[in-house]
Amino acid sequence: MTTTTQGRSLAQARPTRIVWTRRRRDLLGDIWTYLAYLLILAFFIVPVLWVLSLSFKTVREVYAYPPRLLPNQLTLDNYHTVLRNAQFPRYLLNSLKIALLASLGTLAISTPAAYAFSRFRFRAKGTLLIGILALQMISPLVILIPLYRYFAALDLLDSHFGVIMVYLATLTPLTTWLLKGFFDGIPISLEDAGQVDGCSRLQVLWRITMPIAVPGLMSAVVLNVILSWSQFVIPFILISKNKLQPVAVGIFNFQGTYQSTATHTVAAASILTMLPAIVIFVALQRFIVRALLAGAVKG
Amino acid sequence: MSRRVALPKTAALERPLARRPRDHPWLWLVPLLAVTGAFYLYPALDVLRFSFTNASLFRPTYSYSLSSYASLLRSPDFYYVLRITFIFTAGSVLLQLLLGLLIALAVHRGVIRNLPGSVFTRAVVLAAWITPGVIIGLTWQLLLNEANYGIASYALTRLGLPKIPFLSNPIWALVSVTVANIWRGTAFSMILQYAGLQRIPHELYEAAEVDGATPLNSFFHITIPQLRPILLINIILITIYTLNTFDMILPLTGGGPGRATEVIALHTYSRVFNSFDLGKGAALAGIMLVISLIMTLIYSQLLRSEEAE
Fold this sequence. Notes:
The structure holds two protein chains of two kinds. By secondary structure, chain A is mostly helical. Chain A has 14 helices and no strands. Chain B is globular. In chain B, about 40% of the residues are buried.
């Protein structure tokens, strides 16, 4: 298989010499492609590998010179230290709670809105869609400035409820666009058929459209869980109590406390923080790529 | 919503679902509009209002004035921050776009030719994108550190090059922050370009080849023009993402040394939450807001012309 299927039919019609040069060019191209892969992988893997390596090292080896990628003596002590730490496991739990609630809440809010944008005709539709998109572009930092004041007045600072409401506001615009795209892809004739059989709009949505939309909804949830897990600036500003922090903020405090004395502990904590996101990503890569593509360019 | 009852069959046939006048889209939109209105739109407008006051973060009273903008425009700090932000953004956008395109081309070629490792390479690049920003900052901090465990310095020594103060020299720190941001954001450009490449009809390349075009000719006369709309959308989106960068820089350099890596988001934050100067912070936030709005307008125009084609 040195030529593509389309290429082969053309190539067969041509003299052998051209086929031969084409083969040689393809082989050369393959070599270049692998060279590119090698460079890409080096750039993207080495930083993470280095943190992974530090996380398994003893203090003495962390500061040893010359540094080695593979430690002489693997130790799990750093992970023990992190997980026995008074705060760190709580950070992880807080993140889990916030990410799940925010993602499910986002789904509950965005699904009906996306359905309406996809299926109904109304005057302000175009404007509203662009307006929602515009919100999505504004940095959360900008809105957090007044939100901090309101939350202070309403006694919502240091509350997971308050934080989750802001997560919802930042996640729903993109999710609505994403889901609208998925609903647009479901033929309206299917729903008309359901309608003919005497189903109401809600029954049609529940029995016909939703089951088809499940992969799309999954993509949205997965993407939102990952985005919520990574979210930093919202809890960083709105939560100051250590025991309420999600892990993204917790690890930053952790760095402030331990970096100078215990780099290996910070490395282990970093690995534990990124692990859930990476695991979800590897397991559900298909959904994430789909969501990413649908979210940015339509079609 | 539940008062919607099934219409008689004939009426349903006459009016397919999409065109029924009795639909009330607003009911379906209320939750979205309420949440985004209360927690996004209103605060965004309020930022603009605060930017015309002399408010402090904790003092309840304030009066309206143009002093925030006036003192911002007079302050040399502001222009310094703008310059840092510009260098950081331009460097990130340019290289993310270029690197993203190169990776997309390599992976696209690999997938077409069924080369093993193509999907793996794509996944590794994407994994960088889903890594939390704080962790990316921490990772690069460990990598570029000037202590013994900073492996970047060690690599330079092994190559016989002098050590580089990656995080303690102002210029190098800005370079480091930009490189870390390229590491983070390239996946997004890559996946967009990859999708774009898949949409280019293969016949175009075959026709060009029959006409005797070299691969380089095909690249500049087919690939680039065909990708143009996506490239433009890509530039807009990564510009906004980069301008909003906050989480990654904090653990990497904290904005330092001095203020060498204090981009506009970081500067805004420290104005409001370290100096408690709400008025000036809001003015900075207002500037960020206006930039995002302009970018969104361009983006929506691009989307519209994309759809029209």
